[in-house]
Amino acid sequence: MLFKEIVGQEDIKKRLIQTVRDNRISHAQLLLGPAGSGNLALAFAYAQYIFCSNKGGHDSCGECSSCLKMQKIAHPDFHFVFPVYKIKDGRETISDDLIADMREALTQNPYLELDEFLDNAGIENKQAQIYVGESASILRKLSFKAYEGEYRIIIIWKPEKMNVQAANKILKMIEEPPERTLFIMVAENTDLMLATILSRTQMVKIKKIDDASMQKALVEKFNLSPENALRITHLADGNFGTAMKMAAEGDDSTDNTQRFRDWMLACYKNNIPEMLSWSEKLASTDEGREKQKAFLAFCQNMFRKALMQTYSTPELARMTDNERSFFLKFSTFVNGNNIMEITAELDTASYHIERNAYPKLLFFDLSLKLGVFLRASQQVSVKA
Ligand SMILES: [Zn+2]
Fold first, then answer.
1. Residue 38 pLDDT more than 70?
2. CA of 55 to the centre of ligand 1 (A)
3. What is the per-residue pLDDT across 118-129, written as a single tens digit (0 to 9) for each?
4. What DSSP line would sit under 117-138, residue for residue?
5. 20, 27 in Cβ contact below 8 A?
6. Within this chain, do residues 291 and 357 fall inside the same structural domain, yes or no?
7. Could you tell me how many helices (H) and strands (E) the chain has, helices first?
8. What is the DSSP letter of 32?
9. Which protein residues have their CB within 5 A of the ion that is ligand 1?
């Protein structure tokens, strides 16, 4: 992974590169950043930069033998640890058992979520942990000398999911690190990490990806129009994994915006035939439950945006022209008096769709309720 392949995060890249150039790489670091921020990709690019035998001022060379091995996640001095579940009889599964699949998945998508990977591997997410067998495996690897590089690097993804035994063993390694060994942990949330580990690592806080960088990346990588890229950027809210999925799925959000407008209009006017035909359309078989749930999530987002406009945040400036003209009118119908009820109804609907409710009735019922809330909000705000 080259730094230049990672979206945004220029400050962090500079900071990581500087530690190498100043020869003050901390032996235990924690890259802490939200999902889709590229925290794992940054750790990989950092490791590659450390190994690169011909590094430049801003990036690895991408061509030396270390770079080539790191690009395939197959450098002998590099070890990658992530949560797994016991799938083999007789012996504890460790990351190495799944490394081939992980290599392939990460090469295809450096913004991969652990959940996605585990899903594909048929592992129940809740059970995945970094078990104590993993620490034994790390210790064994560290008992050998570095093969090629000056350093050995161990990336631990999701240290939040280390069980206590594993964490204690890894803590010992961090406290008395073997020579020229670097631990880079990549986490989203420190709440579940042992305080003792946290206190011994240097934390690098990574923010969500900024809108301008994400929009630019979407235009370049997916050949989207700037307007479309901007819309996806706003929906993805700093998560490039989500943005890539939206971009790959095509222009759903335009359809959704149109569909949302038609629906809200029918609800507000209490236009029963239109509500019925709308419900029928959304419930039609080719949509599927996942798409129906995705649409309800889209609606939640639209209501949130509308609420923000009601309270005059700069959200409006970030919309496309079409969205803006619709929102200027629509947002006057969403406020503190009805947003809780609307959100709760959308959540309930999503819950019932998952549990095989009859979708046409469900959407019709939801339409009636939303119509009542929208009209009520107007009366309240007029009185106020
Ligand atoms: Zn190189």
1. yes
2. 6
3. 888 777 767 788
4. HHHHTT--GGG-BB-HHHHHHH
5. no
6. yes
7. 17, 5
8. E
9. 52, 54, 60-61, 64, 67
Measured distance CA(307)–CA(292) in Å, rounded: 23
Q: Which domain holds residue 25?
A: 3-207
Q: Are residues 156 and 53 in the same domain?
A: yes
Q: Categorize the per-residue pLDDT at 383 as very low, low, confident or very high, splitting at 50, 70 and 90.
A: very low
172 lies in the same domain as 120: yes
68 CA distance to ligand 1 centroid (A)? 7
Domain CATH code at residue 340: 1.20.272
In a domain, 196, yes or no: yes
Can you give the pLDDT at residue 187? 96
For the chain, how far is it from start to end, CA to CA, in angstroms?
57
In the reported structure, the alpha carbon of residue 13 is separated from the centroid of ligand 1 by a whole-number distance in angstroms of 16
Nearest to 214 by CA among 246, 189, 185: 246
Count up the domains in the chain and report the number: 2
Contact assessment for residue 75 and residue 69, using Cβ atoms and an 8 Å cutoff? yes
Prediction pTM value: 0.70
Report yes or no: 40 and 81 within 8 Å, Cβ to Cβ.
no
What is the CA(69)–ligand 1 centre distance, in A? Answer: 9
Q: What percent of the chain has pLDDT over 90?
A: 45
CA distances to 67, 141, 230, 351, 371 from 330, rounded to whole Å, are 53, 60, 21, 26, 13
CATH number at residue 171: 3.40.50.300
